[in-house]
Automatic annotation (TrEMBL):
Belongs to the MsrB Met sulfoxide reductase family. Its EC number is 1.8.4.12. This is peptide-methionine (R)-S-oxide reductase. Gene3D superfamilies: Peptide methionine sulfoxide reductase. GO terms for molecular function: peptide-methionine (R)-S-oxide reductase activity. Keywords: Oxidoreductase. PROSITE patterns: MSRB (PS51790), TAT (PS51318). The gene is msrB. SUPFAM superfamilies: Mss4-like. It comes from Dyella lipolytica. It comes from the Bacteria. Residues 83-205 form the MsrB domain. It catalyses: L-methionyl-[protein] + [thioredoxin]-disulfide + H2O = L-methionyl-(R)-S-oxide-[protein] + [thioredoxin]-dithiol.
Length: 208
């Protein structure tokens, strides 16, 4: 007997093969075919840095750009780059925040809730991080959300810097620092994911 899960997995495989058959670079939920299937991704990185980093596959939740619907769990290759490669990929401010755990100046980036529906992706690796529907104006000057789009897509760790005990939030797809989470947010979670604008890329839904 074929389970419901098997049908869904088969449908996803059909979608992937159909997209690949059309030629060009597959972008599923913002993830390239190379990251999705791990095709020599670490070999490219090793050649550029001169180090043989071990392959590391992740199971993350993928979401479509057109309307944000959940595409299911996808196996992707963690993005591992040298500092020089990160410098090429990110702006100086984004590098300081994402790779050096810095903090952008309050009110320096787009922090108000956008007028259009959409989701936020990691600037570093395009992992889906937050749905705009969970964003609220915290008055702090940083984008704030009451939950991530998927717990699996973020990593929370203890941060004891500056004599404080906080919970730091980073992207599971590339280990880039995003911000911190606090327990002074609104219902239904009571949490405030306080993120840095330079670490996020907003993608407006193409289908309303």
């Amino acid at each position: 007997m074929t389970s419901t899960f098997d049908h869904k997995a088969m449908d996803r495989r059909r979608f992937l093969f159909a997209a690949l058959g059309g030629g060009g670079l597959l972008a599923l939920g913002g993830l390239s075919a190379e990251r999705l299937f791990g095709n020599k991704g670490n070999g490219v990185m090793a050649a550029a840095t001169g180090t043989a980093a071990p392959a590391q596959d992740l199971l993350l939740e993928c979401f479509a750009d057109d309307d944000g619907h959940h595409l299911g769990t996808c196996q992707v290759r963690k993005l591992v780059l040298s500092d020089a490669q990160w410098h090429q990929r990110l702006s100086d401010e984004a590098f300081n925040v994402m790779r050096r755990a810095g903090t952008e100046m309050a009110f320096s980036g787009p922090h108000e809730k956008p007028n259009s529906k959409g989701l936020y992706r990691c600037v570093g690796c395009d992992t889906a991080l937050f749905n705009g529907a969970t964003q609220f104006d915290s008055g702090t000057g940083w984008p704030s959300f009451w939950q991530p789009i998927a717990k699996k897509n973020v990593i929370e760790t203890s941060d004891t810097s500056f004599g404080m005990v906080r919970t730091a939030v980073s992207c599971a797809g590339c280990d880039s620092h995003l911000g911190h989470v606090f327990d002074d947010g609104p219902a239904p979670t009571g949490l405030r994911y306080c993120m840095n604008s330079v670490a996020l890329r907003f993608v407006a839904f193409r289908v309303s």
